[in-house]
Amino acid sequence: MDDLFTITELADELSITTRTIRFYEEQGLLSPGRLGSTRVYTLRDRARLSLIMRGKRLGFSIRDIQEYLELYDADPKHQKQTGALLAKARARIVELEEQMDSLKLTLCELRAIERTAAEALGEDMESDAGQTCRDD
């Protein structure tokens, strides 16, 4: 049973809950075997779960991850999978850069509010006196 894992072993190894693993099973991303009433996972299942967790950490949807895994199974040379991954990664980069720009603007505006409120209360603040907020 060196190449088989229980749900608890897999959850512990990946620092996730057994409920998380069951959720991915319900979504059709994992299909464990059974030894009696015990779910057992193969090295392939462990690799798939690692890919799923990485995809979630990078902000990909369950559907994106499912498409990626299906391509992996269907394309032994992984050309389609790699092309799809590249396209999804580029789209995610653009999305995150837009979010970062928006966060920078929000922080700038909040700092301006903070300065104004602190001045109104007579608090002394180290300031970025000339800083203006731009949406560019």
From TrEMBL:
SMART domains (UniProt xref): HTH_MERR
Keyword GTP-binding recorded: no
HTH merR-type domain boundaries: 4-71
Coiled-coil spans in chain: 79-106
InterPro entries referenced in this protein's UniProt entry, alphabetically: DNA-bd_dom_put_sf, MerR-type_HTH_dom, MerR_fam
The UniProt record lists the keyword Zinc: no
GO molecular function: DNA binding; DNA-binding transcription factor activity
Pfam family of the protein (one): MerR_1
Keywords: Coiled coil, DNA-binding
Protein name (database record): Transcriptional regulator, MerR family
